[in-house]
Amino acid sequence: MQLRERQEVEALPRRLLALARGIADDYGRTGASQFAAAISYRALFSLVPLTTFVVTVAGLFLRDDSQRQRFVDTVAERFDLSASGVTSVDRIVADIPSPWSLVGVIALGVALWGATGVMSSVRRAIAVIFDDGIGYDFARGKLVDAALVVGVLLAMFVVVALSVLEQIAARVSRHVEAWLDWQPSGVGFVLGVLVPAVLTAAVFVLLYRFLPRARPAWRAALYGAVGAAVACQAIQYGLAWYLSGPADFTRLYGSAGAVLAFLLFVYLSSMAFLVGALAASRIGR
Fold it and tell me: Is the overall model pTM greater than 0.85, yes or no?
């Protein structure tokens, strides 16, 4: 038994190397970089309808003045808005049409249709990687895209909840430090890094497992998702350092710098997601 385990450990580097070579071959064969570019391009144009969809759904919960004020205060504190910015956010939230009104239903439908564009690119990429390009028909594909948009909506609510918890934990930490002369450590890392990475991996596992027609095993989907989630976290922090130091897009491109930075982030994150899918496909064979 010990001999067999030792042989498996010795063979692990060769297996990882073969896996890396297979992923590199599949990356070029499937045109993953082109799919990543398509996802980032369509994400840019789906951003406004997706935001409209989220805000319209949020109108269900922000009709009360106290709830609206709490939401505006959270946004203002999170993004360090000026007084005029806070006023603009409050006016936007107050003018949200009710989803149950005729205007609200039309706005919700149009926004949902526009937001499915980026999901369609993700679905097509997954079909090429796992199913040799055989995807769903148009009607079923659009239903799947709409379900993915609703999933994004739920993920956004979770991110907002985590942001609020992180702020509460920071306040509690300051109070504990003032009372006991001791500062709890690790709370910011858990809520700001570890929990988002775990949630990202969970989302990727579900996409790798249930989006393809030929579903990979849970183990293969998990391996690919964990690698992609770690890569996405590294991209997020690495790109934040790069844009704040060596490359200042605002200085180079002016007001278009934020758009280009968004495109670069989505493109690199899409590449990590697709490489994880390629890994899951290879491991599941």
Answer: no
